[in-house]
């Protein structure tokens, strides 16, 4: 009996020493903020961060702080954080690729406060979840873009337009709606004092129509209806850009099959055809009919 | 009188001085000290070659109009050379040992001197042996003069960084070359690309694997060598926070002048901050084109412009090897690092299936009526999950059905290999390159048409043009002033970046008079491309595949423009012989199984066509016997499935009284000790089974079927042998390292054995 109780004492002691033996050698720790929202995320972050006996991560959901312990002779805190970011979680050092973030379960998509708000159209990936919370990542025609685009009066219109087009290429109704809203904001921001005579004439003619079509896309969550509005929006915008100076070539492209063979046009910055009317189904269907310079 | 003389002298002095200054500002001299060094890029200290103490070699910058003077101090224990890739220069400065100069001997100095008559992004590298693989590559930047008519505001005045890509392997490159020639698949094991039967069954591709072996193909891959690291300017990851001391900020554009100095790797180039604008290729301006990604072939150069979209963020610019096992990055900008996702793993069995469909039984490729050229149709897209889905059925995202054009069958879709038609991203191809200026050649120059078919096989790693390696061909004579129009068809299963020395050629890509100028054209399997150039500079110009191991295997030609008297090479014929010899080196391999029931092994010397090999089976007692077979044979055909040989067999074995072996033809062999000469041939049957037929001088006939290296699982290889002497053998290997395997086998003569198999 005594022996057994002694054993009972010894075994946990042994186990605990083994536990300390299994600990990380040359251990260094770093405390880093990693963004995530649900308890389920804790498992993912800690699993992604772990590297055999060389690194482990302990993440606290409330504080968002992670304690990264790593063997400094084998790896680094950056390597651990990079893996976590590639799994979709922004942290102080690395921003997750957008495609990794989008692949997280809807409930796990946290607010990306580290990612700077987009100022121009070079990045088309848009935050999916936050459109209900005020669209902070959607393109806004800010003062800085305006000053940069003085030579082309309508550049602030084309940027959200191309983002909208790209969303339709991907058949993404949510992003398309968000970009159409940015486009509406851009219409309001056009400074008519800076327009040339020709630009002004056409602008007065098309302004309302552009706003209506954009509103049609924003309101509608059905991508088929969005595309009908987009077809109309594109032709109208083309009329406007024809009389205006554009920044770099813009390609006016034609899809012969949309709307039961009636066809439709769209504008693109690339000569390579990416059809926004059918998405992946017929992505390269269509041709460039005119190049605006 | 006095006055006159003085003024005369003054004019002369003035004249001299102006001339001097004109000359003086032109010559730009660089001293390069080439030394052995030890580096540790991937966990082990290994030999490399550093120039001026650095890898890559220093970036050399000149301006059009300068005269380059580059002094090479060879402090190696072996000879070296430097080739100026993409540069127009007198032939004697081109830097190909045995073709344009003698090799630069150890402890000697050599001066290259040539006028710079062009601009653009180029690079330079050793053209001696495999030195390029272990450090001898560097950027060579030729700036435009500011008053150049082609100076492009917004491009040529951007902050610019030269970037040279390369790979590192901990193996000695000579060993890699040897392993390639013996079809050692250690690289595939390292990459997880063995494509064994077990893996095939797991993915439901058993039939694909069988068909592949039926067509006598080894596992297919997009690259042959496993690298431990890839590097951009010698580093795995670099932070580019400022250019010329100016910190980078949002809205800034940066021009990267990228050269692929890798010995055998193609790289995908991608950017986390949006589109990539391609502004030049192979040192020649192109009309800017925006893409999401591009592939840079071995030895190509691309100038790309990237934009920093936001403040406080550094965007990853990533180069990933075509096989997607390794990558290196530049982070452009200041602040938190925006990553880009790694490229997903290749779907190898889809590639194998595609290859099966394309390959005829005789090893020829069949493009099934698709006229393929200019990298537009990339057969490899079937392996790209990001374009063709992750192996499951492609989802149809759009909700509206009933569109008749959506129902086209995949097999009939003319775009089924067109990445830009299939995916929602834009990948650069050659058809998108356009020169800003007309590049037409003089109309009155005579045109000469040449055709090359690129040929080769993986199993013996012989690469050739028209099934002839350099050592089997003479120089191709060309008249100065002729236009050479060369059509190249790739009938091999690997892609080849074909490089021409000394000239830029026009790549006929549908852009008419504005066809782009290049000096490397990457040709994928089954593609046909046409190039043309004016041969207006005399000399011997190398024309070769730039994959280092293909070049060393003999995939080369020489264009001899007129009869050039090269002061470096008084005896050109002899030098050419040496060049031919270096491109068809003899390789040695050996292997022995130290087993409980005896020693089995073989040793072989081989080059592109010939093979001298010995196989032995040595028992531990007289009863089991000792047996050595030696064959000297020559391979025929581009697939090299047929090898006639002469042989000599020696066998000693003590048998019991009246015990005689009989073969299935009833021929008996009575001698315990037998020496026999033989004639025979070996032929590779479908399923990669070697059939060997032999007749000995004493009339005895032997037929044998044998298969080695059956890829059962990732590390498990099976083999068997059966012959008309009623001998048989079956074995299993478990591959432990590249030189070692655990082996168990059963042999009809020697019984069951286990052992350790070593190979060199």
UniProtKB/TrEMBL annotation, chain A:
Stored Pfam families: DUF3347 (PF11827)
Q: Does the keyword Oxidoreductase apply?
A: no
The DUF3347 domain sits at 159-245
Keyword ATP-binding applies: no
Give the range the annotation lists for the signal sequence: 1-22
The record's keywords, sorted A to Z, are: Signal
- Which SUPFAM superfamilies does the record match to this protein? HMA, heavy metal-associated domain (SSF55008)
An example molecular function term from Gene Ontology annotations: metal ion binding
Name by which UniProt lists this protein: Uncharacterized protein DUF3347
Give the originating organism.
Answer: Sphingobacterium siyangense
Automatic annotation (TrEMBL), chain B:
Disordered: region residues: 390-411
Q: Give the Plastocyanin-like domain ranges.
A: 36-145, 224-325, 449-563
Signal peptide extent: none
Database matches in SUPFAM superfamilies: Cupredoxins (SSF49503)
Q: Which UniProt keywords apply?
A: Copper, Metal-binding, Oxidoreductase
Q: Which GO terms describe its molecular function?
A: copper ion binding; oxidoreductase activity
Q: What is this protein called?
A: CopA family copper-resistance protein
* Species the sequence originates in: Sphingobacterium siyangense
């Amino acid at each position: 009996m005594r022996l057994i109780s002694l054993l009972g004492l010894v075994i946990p002691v042994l186990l605990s020493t083994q536990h300390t033996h299994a600990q990380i050698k040359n251990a260094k720790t770093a405390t880093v903020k990693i963004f995530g929202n649900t308890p389920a995320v804790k498992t993912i972050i800690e699993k992604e961060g772990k590297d055999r006996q060389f690194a482990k991560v302990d993440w606290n959901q409330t504080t968002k702080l992670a304690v990264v312990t790593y063997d400094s002779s084998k790896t680094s805190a950056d390597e651990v954080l990079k893996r976590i970011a590639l799994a979709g979680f922004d942290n102080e050092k690395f921003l997750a690729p957008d495609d990794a973030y989008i692949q997280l379960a809807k409930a796990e998509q946290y607010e990306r406060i580290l990612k700077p708000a987009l100022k121009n159209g070079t990045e088309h990936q848009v935050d999916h979840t936050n459109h209900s919370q005020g669209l902070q990542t959607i393109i806004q025609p800010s003062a800085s873009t305006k000053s940069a685009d003085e030579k082309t009066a309508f550049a602030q219109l084309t940027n959200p337009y191309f983002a909208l087009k790209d969303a339709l290429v991907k058949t993404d109704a949510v992003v398309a709606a968000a970009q159409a809203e940015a486009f509406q904001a851009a219409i309001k921001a056009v400074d008519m004092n800076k327009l040339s005579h020709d630009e002004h004439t056409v602008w007065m003619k098309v302004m309302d129509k552009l706003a209506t079509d954009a509103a049609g896309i924003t309101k509608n969550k059905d991508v088929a209806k969005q595309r009908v509005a987009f077809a109309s929006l594109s032709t109208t915008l083309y009329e406007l850009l024809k009389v205006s100076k554009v920044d770099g070539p813009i390609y006016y492209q034609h899809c012969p099959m949309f709307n039961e063979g009636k066809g439709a046009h769209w504008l693109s910055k690339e000569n390579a055809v990416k059809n926004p009317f059918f998405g992946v189904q017929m992505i390269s269907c269509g041709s460039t009919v005119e190049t605006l310079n | 009188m006095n006055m006159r003389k003085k003024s005369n002298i003054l004019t002369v002095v003035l004249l001299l001085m102006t001339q001097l200054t004109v000359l003086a500002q032109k010559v730009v001299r660089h001293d390069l000290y080439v030394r052995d060094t030890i580096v540790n890029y991937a966990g082990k200290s290994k030999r490399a070659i550093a120039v001026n103490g650095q890898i890559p070699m220093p970036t050399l910058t000149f301006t059009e109009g300068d005269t380059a003077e580059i002094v090479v101090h060879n402090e190696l224990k072996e000879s070296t050379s430097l080739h100026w890739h993409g540069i127009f220069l007198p032939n004697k400065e081109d830097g190909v040992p045995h073709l344009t100069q003698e090799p630069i001997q150890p402890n000697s100095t050599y001066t290259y001197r040539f006028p710079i008559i062009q601009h653009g992004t180029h690079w330079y590298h050793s053209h001696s042996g495999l030195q390029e693989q272990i450090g001898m590559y560097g950027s060579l930047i030729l700036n435009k003069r500011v008053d150049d008519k082609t100076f492009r505001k917004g491009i040529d005045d951007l902050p610019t960084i030269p970037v040279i890509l390369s790979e590192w392997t901990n193996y000695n490159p000579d060993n890699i070359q040897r392993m390639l020639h013996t079809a050692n698949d250690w690289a595939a094991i390292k990459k997880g690309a063995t494509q064994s039967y077990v893996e095939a069954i797991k993915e439901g591709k058993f039939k694909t694997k069988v068909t592949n072996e039926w067509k006598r193909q080894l596992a297919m891959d997009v690259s042959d060598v496993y690298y431990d690291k890839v590097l951009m300017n010698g580093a795995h990851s670099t932070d580019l926070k400022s250019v010329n001391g100016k910190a980078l900020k949002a809205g800034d554009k940066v021009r990267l002048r990228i050269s692929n100095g890798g010995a055998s790797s193609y790289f995908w180039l991608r950017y986390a901050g949006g589109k990539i604008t391609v502004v030049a290729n192979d040192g020649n301006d192109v009309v800017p084109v925006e893409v999401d990604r591009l592939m840079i072939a071995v030895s190509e150069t691309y100038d790309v412009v990237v934009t920093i979209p936001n403040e406080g963020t550094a965007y990853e610019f990533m180069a990933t090897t075509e096989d997607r096992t390794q990558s290196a990055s530049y982070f452009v900008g200041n602040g938190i690092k925006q990553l880009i996702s790694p490229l997903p793993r290749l779907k190898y069995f889809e590639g194998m299936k595609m290859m099966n469909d394309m390959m005829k039984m005789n090893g020829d490729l069949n493009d099934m009526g698709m006229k393929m050229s200019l990298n537009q149709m990339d057969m490899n897209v079937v392996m790209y999950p990001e374009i063709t889905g992750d192996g499951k059925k492609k989802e149809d995202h759009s909700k509206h059905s009933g569109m008749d054009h959506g129902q086209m069958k995949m097999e009939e879709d003319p775009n089924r290999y067109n990445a830009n038609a299939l995916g929602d991203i834009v990948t650069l191809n050659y058809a998108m390159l356009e020169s800003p200026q007309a590049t037409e050649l003089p109309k009155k120059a005579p045109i000469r048409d040449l055709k090359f078919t690129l040929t080769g096989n993986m199993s013996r790693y012989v690469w050739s043009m028209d099934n002839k390696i350099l050592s089997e061909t003479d120089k191709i004579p060309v008249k100065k002033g002729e236009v050479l129009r060369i059509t190249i068809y790739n009938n091999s299963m690997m892609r080849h970046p074909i490089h021409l020395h000394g000239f830029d050629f026009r790549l006929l890509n549908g852009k008419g008079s504005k066809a782009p100028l290049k000096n490397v054209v990457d040709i994928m399997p089954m593609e046909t491309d046409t190039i043309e150039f004016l041969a207006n500079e005399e000399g011997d110009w190398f024309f070769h595949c730039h994959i280092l191991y293909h070049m060393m295997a003999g995939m080369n030609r020489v264009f001899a423009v007129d009869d050039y008297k090269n002061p470096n090479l008084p005896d050109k014929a002899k030098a050419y012989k040496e060049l031919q010899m270096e491109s068809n080196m003899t390789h040695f391999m050996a292997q022995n199984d130290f087993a409980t029931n005896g020693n089995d092994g073989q040793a072989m010397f081989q080059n592109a066509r010939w093979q001298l090999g010995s196989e032995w089976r040595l028992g531990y007692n007289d009863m089991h016997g000792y047996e050595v077979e030696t064959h000297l044979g020559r391979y025929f055909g581009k697939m090299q499935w047929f090898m006639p040989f002469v042989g000599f067999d020696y066998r000693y074995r003590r048998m019991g009284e009246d015990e005689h072996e009989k073969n299935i033809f009833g021929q008996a062999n009575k001698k315990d000790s037998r020496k026999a000469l033989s004639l025979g041939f070996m032929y590779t049957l479908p399923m990669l089974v070697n059939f060997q037929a032999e007749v000995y001088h004493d009339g005895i006939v032997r037929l044998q079927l044998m298969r080695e290296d059956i890829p059962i699982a990732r590390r498990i290889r099976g083999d068997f042998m059966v012959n008309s002497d009623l001998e048989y053998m079956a074995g299993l290997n478990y591959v432990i390292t590249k030189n070692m395997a655990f082996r168990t086998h059963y042999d009809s003569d020697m019984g069951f054995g286990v052992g350790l198999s070593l190979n060199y």
